Amino acid sequence: NPREHVRNFSIIAHIDHGKSTLADRILEYVGAIDKRHFHAQLLDDMEIEQERGITIKASAVTINYKADDGHTYTLNLIDTPGHVDFTYEVSKSLAACEGALLLVDASQGIEAQTVANFFLAREHNLKIIPVINKIDIAGIDIDRVKEQITDILRLEEDDILLASAKEGIGIKEILERVVQTIPAPSGDDNNPLETLIFDSSFDTYKGVVIYGRLFNGQLALGDTIRMMQANKICTVEEIGVFRPQMTSTKALHCGEVGYITANIRDPKEILIGDTITLADHPAQQPLPGYKKVKPMVFCGIYPVNAKDFAELKVAMEKLGLNDSSFVYETETSQSFGYGFRCGFLGLLHMEIVQERLEREYNLNLVLTTPNVVYRITTRDDKVMEVDNPAKLPDPVQIKLAEEPFVRAFMIVPTNAIEEVCELTKQRRGEFLANDYLGEERVKVIYRMPLAEVIVDFYDKIKSVTRGYGSLDYEFDGYNPTKLVKLDILINGKICDAFSCLIHKDKAQAKGRLLVEKLRELIPRQLYLINLQAAIGGTILASEKIRPVGKNVTAKCYGGDITRKRKLWEKQKEGKKRLKQVGNVEIPQEAFLAALKI
Ligand code: GDP
Ligand code: MG
């Protein structure tokens, strides 16, 4: 029975604890790829076309491992898709596994995401193998980290493995533990097919590539399959496994992980979390799939060049396929023209999406100020969700405004606790609980508005704890709030790119900062520029940018034409990075700076 020798597992950890490095070492150890080749391939990845890049950057790898018991095992190492460190992404992978390696950095100890991921793996009933990584670092206290693992996670000390992913220490012990303690997949080849779609990507030649885990039944080339929720029928054109390159096979069996292509050209036809079954021998009902996650943070994304809109649209669709927690719809802005309103799980997610769009699709983008989703009850008792400042009803129509709150969970050094308290107080946080984890660390829990967390709270926590603090948060309902729309007027006209929804008590300070920053960043132009921050008709702050006197070329005294020309060229260069809003030119960095206030 081949299923007995299959093991499906993930690597989970707080960011930077060595997940990717360990995956690399495991691949090397089993000879999936030799050392020199490995690096060459990774470098290639950056340069080759994105369609090939995606196939190599597989989120599942199948390797063979000959264990000490003499059997050769098929190991499916399922990575969390993309570089996103979000719970939801991890959760998708865990649903396809029976076990998880929980890495803890020996020099950092347990951090917020270590705990969050641990509980997630627990929820999925996975066998958890704790591994202390980076034991090569000098001066670390391994016993202290062991103590944290037994105290906080209640795992057995004897079960803890030691490793250095960097030096390749402990790899064999990890693989032996995987085959000995992680259960083989259950299910039966003869049952109706149940394949969980846990991820997907797009290949120019093959179309949509589905990443699936078979929980029951088997799948062969040419089978007619049905996506149970999308209710779409198609024919399997290719199936295979990632080694890590896509390697086609004739069939996939119960318990296995692999890819499926079926000449699906429209990325939107695939739902992550859907179940694939056989059209003529279907499963009774789909697998539980995934909870639909709700984006928490919204912003507008626009191409710097209006002509890139079509390209941006295609990029959004492809990216959406790879990242199902990202949502978007078209919108128009007075300042920027056609673009998209996009929803993200958090600000880090937003930054990653922006980076991927710019890097993988070679686009130049502007993002508008991000905001959370407010819940507004109007005088006529209609309840609406507002994810865009432009959609906030007239203040006289608003009966109740509510904003989302989170439970923020932090692990910080004991000596930084006062600064952390001060910081959370400034962010309207309410203390809930604390818990000392030995002498050096303390776990603190606050309830605070999501809007206060998304901006730069994590950076601030990192800075007041000198890098030793960590943060995790989860949605915790809505609370009434005093909400206003803050606008920036340029020569009397609202520039919607700078509009934001904000707590009333914070509007004054933010408005002031915004106009001051814009005065610094917008270059002087031929006429006076008036900058104002306002709520409705009330001006909160204003600044002026005086006009430039004469044409800059006047400096050249009319003489040397080549010098003049050079100056003109230089001015034109500079203009490329400017965005025309009304008759004022605003540099791209002004929009970026506004995001950070
Ligand atoms: P991930 O975010 O969990 O995927 O972490 P990475 O694998 O990207 O590693 C984060 C950093 O830690 C990188 O700079 C690695 O080189 C380093 N690192 C990973 N494993 C080890 C280790 O065993 N020892 C040491 N000294 N550094 C390591
Ligand atoms: Mg990584």
Gist?
The protein is α+β, with helices and mostly antiparallel strands.
Can you put this structure into words, describing what you see?
One of its GO terms (molecular function) is GTP binding. GTP binds at residues 16-21, 133-136. Residues 4-186 form the Tr-type G domain. Keywords: Cell membrane, Elongation factor, GTP-binding, Hydrolase, Membrane, Nucleotide-binding, Protein biosynthesis. The protein is α+β, with helices and mostly antiparallel strands and 597 residues long. It contains 15 helices and 34 strands. Helix 2 packs antiparallel against helix 3 (50-56), helix 4 packs parallel to helix 5 (112-123) and helix 13 (504-521) packs antiparallel against helix 15. Bound molecules: guanosine-5'-diphosphate (GDP) and magnesium ion. Residues 19-20 line the site of magnesium ion (MG).
